[in-house]
Amino acid sequence: MLTDGEVIDLVRAGRRDEALAAILPAYRRKVFGLAYSFLRSREAAEDVAQEVFIKVWRAMGEFDGRASLSTWVYTITRNSSLSALRARRNETSLSHPGALEEMEVIDESASAETAASDAALLRLVNGLPDKQRQVVTLFYMQEQSHEEVSAMLGMPVGTVKTLLHRARSRLSAVASGAAGAQEADA
Question: Is residue 163 within 8 Å of 131, Cβ to Cβ?
Fold first, then answer.
């Protein structure tokens, strides 16, 4: 991975293709993860990620290093994701059963028990408020640090930690309520 300064040097030398080729492997997964946390659709997140890297390539001449490269890329990703979300809001509701099914894509090699557990967890996470869901998805499922989630979502680290705490509390309360209901049914 090149430093921000090395990327700027490549761009100034008219070597945007090389600069993009150098940063693409480092950001591909993170860009997809951030887009997915907003859109909750693999296909939509893939489309946005592709769009983001086209925008990054086109706008590389404007990157001046005042912000870090990661912050710049994540800002483009966040804005592109929000635009895609607004565009599809008229097409389909996020509460549509198809959106939930998209979140339940499980590795085929997983055992049935693990798959059921994963699907139940995804349903719980899907029920969180948007910001809590995004933070949980990025921090736990995409394994990003507090600082990376902060940069990706454009919010202070303290806010990320607070949202994680609230999400854990909410998930714990929901899980406890479900366990209590199962015991009452038995």
Answer: yes
pLDDT digits (tens, 9 = 90+) for 29-56: 989 988 998 888 899 999 999 999 999 9
Domains, the chain, ordered by start: 4-89 (1.10.1740.10), 104-185 (1.10.10.10)
Confidence of residue 161 (pLDDT cuts 50, 70, 90): very high
The number of angstroms, rounded, from the C-alpha of 182 to the middle of its chain's C-alpha atoms is: 33
State the pTM of this model. Answer: 0.62
CB 9 within 8 A of CB 52: no
CB 107 within 8 A of CB 117: no
Chain Cα centroid distance, residue 51: 15
* Single-letter amino acid, residue 1: M
The distance from CA 64 to its chain's CA centroid, rounded to whole angstroms, is 25
Count how many Cα atoms sit within 13 Å of the Cα of residue 52 in the half-sphere of its side chain: 32
Instruction: Say what angle helices 69-89 and 42-59 make with each other, to 10 degrees.
Output: 130
Residue 114: closest CA among 106, 103, 123, 125: 106
